[in-house]
Specification:
alpha+beta, 18% strand
């Protein structure tokens, strides 16, 4: 049996999953003769004492049969995943500092469940986790009327069998997690090397803009991008020479990736992006580093050996920006080491250092889905604090009072060591003004600023068939028989309409104007277009707000809160023409 395993409790001796993988795939007979004094059980996994004599005796890692079976069903730090393990025989693994609650004081029933899990694996290979084909899943999701529910279901499929609620409460922004599926086809249809080759042949892929050629040898990371278009001959020659290929924005060229990301961005409330990485056998393309995004590494083809490391300090935990490249000496020991195979998923939070290299016997293709870049409380406050200060200055005279005449004689770095009561008084007043400033914070306006940034970052919605047929893209308008035909839209008071997606538009106040920001005209290329918005006149503001709040229900045009039917139809036509709303039934055109 070829399985990827991890044996790891932080701070304890461990056997590398990479070494175990190589041992198993070589089909070597694994025997362990360890005395009872040389054994130790912790969190359900058996370890061998880490001493030099034992290492010399063992040579290569040797694991007894009980350990192998335990490893295949390693449990997360939580009771919910254990249920899935017992039902599916999969491996779901999260790094943890302490034994999880499902181990300490667990009930006999839980212990029995865990034994059953191991026993199920003993009878043969672990059962694969089977999900619907991605194409079928996206078709089914297209029939889900609520786009937020659609996004939740897609995220649930991405993480299966970890329930999203447990993921966000126990893992998100806290620690890495590994999902073993033993099913190489789980993510089939998302992207492939064949799709990569087609893009190179059919699309205008530019080195340094859409594609990076990289290598990491002898501790040195290099980029080998020539100028100009990335044509297949040049790109595949780099690949055969041992270089890794990074496709920076696959959503620009691939409709499936675009569709998946445009749905997931609504679940995160933050831009969802992706990069594709193709690595030749026996090579590494990137140096150890950490990123400023939450990363979901989806293995599509082949296998890859990953090492993940804790943030080096509190200052590097959940960072705002990505790190430079690190040397191996700067990063310490990994907290997770694993070989990903097709169908597996690896998650790690921003700030966790990572590096991946290819096994000698297979290439690797994976896509990293990312989100939550610059989406922290601190990022919100960067917008909110200047606005709060401006309001405070305008409304409170204390903020406009002059500074002390002689404050430069006792404040500043050159006076920082001076013992002077005036320094304490000055600092105390600054702190008090900061606390007072919070009372003037326009929180909703600050959130709207973040929302505008999000809508600018977003991909345009990848429309479902229903959205195409019942929206402006389904209009029969065309050039026919020497003239433009079907240009008159028959929108009436009885027409039933709704917003095309829940997160597609937002009303924001700017000065004395009300602006409707939206994503429908965004480009699939990041920030290729300016933020998309238009002014909403006062007489239509309540109607637009009503439509936003009514989602996902269809409402009759004559139910919009406008003064007259003419205004109701007029705003409905404007929103329809801009692609922001759809009708319950296709409109007639003449």
């Amino acid at each position: 049996q070829e399985v990827g395993l991890r044996v790891d409790i932080m701070g304890e001796p461990r056997v590398s999953a990479f070494a175990i993988y190589k041992t198993l795939t070589a089909k070597e007979t694994l025997k362990t003769q360890v005395s009872e004094n040389g054994k130790r059980k912790e969190n359900g996994i058996q370890f061998r004492k880490n001493n030099k004599a034992a290492k010399r005796k063992m040579g290569k890692p040797q694991l007894n049969e009980e350990l192998l079976q335990e490893c295949k069903v390693t449990l997360t730090n939580g009771p919910c995943t254990e249920k899935y393990e017992s039902q599916r025989g999969s491996q779901v693994d999260a790094v943890q500092n302490q034994p999880g609650p499902c181990r300490r004081g667990e009930s006999k029933n839980k212990q029995k469940q865990r034994r059953l899990s191991a026993k199920e694996v003993e009878s043969g290979s672990p059962k694969p986790l089977v999900g619907p084909p991605l194409e079928t899943l996206l078709e089914d999701l297209g029939r889900v009327q609520n786009s937020r529910e659609r996004a939740s279901k897609l995220f649930e499929w991405l993480l299966y069998p970890i329930p999203p609620r447990n993921f966000f409460s126990e893992i998100w922004e806290k620690k890495p997690a590994l999902i073993r599926r033993h099913n190489p086809d789980y993510y089939k249809g998302l992207f492939s090397t064949a799709a990569f080759d087609r893009i190179l042949r059919d699309e205008n892929v530019q080195f340094g803009v859409n594609l990076d050629v990289t290598s990491y040898t002898n501790g040195k990371r290099q980029t080998h991008n020539p100028p100009g278009r990335a044509l297949p001959y040049t790109v595949w020659d780099f690949y055969k020479s041992g270089c890794s290929l990074r496709l920076l924005n696959p959503q620009s060229f691939n409709a499936t990736v675009w569709s998946v990301l445009s749905i997931l961005q609504e679940h995160f409330g933050s831009m969802a992006g992706a990069n594709v990485y193709l690595t030749p056998p026996g090579t590494q393309g990137f140096a150890p580093h950490y990123d400023d995004i939450e990363a979901f590494v989806v293995q599509l083809e082949g296998k890859k050996h990953w090492r993940v490391y804790n943030p080096r300090s509190q200052a590097e935990t959940l960072p705002q920006f990505s790190s430079p490249n690190f040397s191996q000496e700067e990063i310490g020991e990994p907290v997770l080491e694993v070989v990903l195979e097709a169908g597996d998923l690896l998650y790690f939070p921003r700030g966790f250092i990572h590096q991946g290299d290819c096994l000698p016997d297979a290439h690797s293709l994976h896509i990293t889905i990312s989100s939550y870049q610059r989406n922290s409380w601190g990022d919100l406050l960067e917008k909110l604090v200047p606005a709060a200060l401006q309001v405070a200055i305008e409304e409170d005279v204390e903020f406009r009072e002059g500074l002390p005449l002689d404050y430069l004689t006792y404040m500043g770095v050159q006076h920082s060591e001076k013992v002077d009561p005036r320094r304490s008084e000055f600092t105390a007043k600054v702190k008090r003004l900061f606390r007072k400033m919070a009372e003037f914070a326009p929180v909703d306006a600050g959130v709207d600023q973040k929302a505008k940034d999000f809508l600018h970052d977003c991909l345009p919605p990848a429309l479902t068939e229903e959205e195409k047929v019942n929206g402006v893209h389904g209009a029969r308008t065309r050039w026919e028989e020497g003239d433009a035909r079907y240009v008159t839209m028959h929108m009436t008071g009885k027409s039933r309409i709704r917003l095309i997606r829940e997160g597609v538009a937002r009303l924001c106040s700017e000065g004395g104007d009300l602006m409707l920001y939206h994503t429908v005209d965004n480009s699939r290329v990041y920030h290729k277009e300016e933020p998309q918005c238009f002014q909403v006149e006062d007489e239509y503001a309540d109607a637009v707000d009503f439509l936003i709040r009514s989602y996902p229900k269809f409402v009759a045009v004559d139910s919009l809160p406008c003064d007259c039917l003419e205004d109701k139809v007029a705003i409905s036509k404007v929103l329809f023409e801009k692609g922001l709303i759809i009708t319950k039934e296709p409109l007639l055109f003449s």
